[in-house]
Amino acid sequence: MDEQLRYDLMVENALRRVVADTLKMVAEQGLPGSHHFYISFLTDYPGVQIPPYLHEQYPKEMTIVLQYQYYGLVVTPESFSVTLSFNNVKERLTIPLAAITTFADPSVNFALQFQTVEDEEDEEALGEAVPGEEEKPASAEEKVEKGVVVNLDQFRKKPASTDEKKT
Description:
alpha+beta; SH3 type barrels; 4-stranded antiparallel beta sheet; 3-stranded antiparallel beta sheet
């Protein structure tokens, strides 16, 4: 029997549920404290609904921020919808959870980076680079501005060295 358990896909699905559960709590209760989210997604993924001018501006990937001005956040098992302001024009976006490439909450140094597999039979894509990654290093701020996936290590807390002197 050549079939194997696809733990990689099971973990991806479980982590996407974390994103969905988080967004659902925020939709019901609002953002607590200083929490805010950077969400990067593939703009050409099936089911993504964004205005044509945004798709022209971000033909492959886009990053949105949920912090101060977001409206009507609705979460379903497959997607979320939110209204955001772009140049003082409110636009409704619908984003399938499977289109998300990065979910980050910098206020608590938490981030998830997803492999994007549009077709479950396309197993070769699991080992390839995430779309939107750049070859040259860039700062987290530059990557967020360009809608590029942010390396998770930038959000992780580094353990304090036991050799450091206390002052």
